Amino acid sequence: MEYWGLYAVCEKLSLPEVEEYVVFSERDFNRSPEIHWCQITAAERYTENGVCTLPYLFLRYANELSFLQLIFLGLNICGCRIGQDPLCTVRKLKYCAQSLKEHQGRRNALQAIRHIQERSNSIMESKLYMHLCLPNHLGGCAFPKAVFNKPIEVGSKRFYLDLYFPEARLGVEYDSYEYHSNARSFSVDNIRASKIHTAGYRIVHVKPGQLNDIEAYQDLILNLSRLLQKPVYIRTDKFFEPFKELYYFFEPPAYSPVRFSDVPQFAGVSQAYERYLKTRR
Fold it and tell me: What is the pLDDT of residues 166-220, one digit of tens each?
């Protein structure tokens, strides 16, 4: 992971700081935490300079991470800086998983790949995308798939929108405290937003606090629901535990049943929560 520059992902997923050596052999050897013996000989082509490539690395983690963590990993593996090409693509992830039919993580990988988009520029963009676009049974709001860092032309200027919903011509921008908390950044952001509005696009700015406070999160989602003309209605009792995992994604609390006050009060939540409680009895 560090070889490919994914330091922040390692930290956020709390991956152990252990170098793992993958040995490709048809023989079955004793295993250890540091050595993984791979008997799928075709997997050896997924190495570069003696290091696992990103598609194979994704497949290796498919049985070790939770499903949401795996999606997050895939979003960042296929991410890139604005104006650059991603190191990996969804197509490459899928081809690797389909090719290595004997690999234990193949099924989880293929299911997770269905929810992965390319060109995320940061871990927070990835998390915001998961909140907005994953289906309800994975804790998301099931909004239409958004595009990462969509370039739009406004006169002679080119701007990139963190998340872009094409049908609504709506951009969603994540304003971190690091880059959007001083007078100069406020001025630049306002000028930029004015130009984009003039070109016929709408923008919603998301502050960190809106992803850390249930009421603020609920207001944000309902506003986006109105702008996208896509109601949020929770029908499944599988919504609650994935939502809690996603909400506390970087600082998971000790496991406990989800309380009603832990989730936003979207339409259908009350009935779905009653069913959720019954499944726990």
Answer: 999 999 999 986 655 555 666 667 788 888 988 999 999 999 999 999 999 999 9
Residues with Cβ within 8 Å of residue 230, at least 6 apart in sequence: 142, 143, 144
Total residue count of the chain as it appears in this document = 281
Q: Is 35 helix (H, G, I), strand (E, B) or coil?
A: strand
Distance CA 232, CA 269 (A): 10
Output the CA–CA distances (angstroms, integers) from residue 60 to 12, 55, 94, 108, in the order listed. 18, 9, 13, 11
Please write down the HEC assignment for all residues of 125-178: HHHHHHHHHCCHHHCCCCCCCCEEEEEEEECCEEEEEEEEEHHHCEEEEECCCC
Helix (H) or strand (E) holding 2: none
Task: Give residue 244's pLDDT.
Answer: 95
Percentages helix, strand, coil for the chain, rounded to the nearest 5? 45, 15, 40
pLDDT tens digit sequence for 50-109: 999 999 999 999 999 999 999 999 999 999 999 899 999 999 999 999 999 999 999 999
Q: How far apart are CA 154 and CA 134, in angstroms?
A: 30
Structure letter (DSSP) for residue 112: H
Cα separation, 33 vs 52, whole angstroms: 17
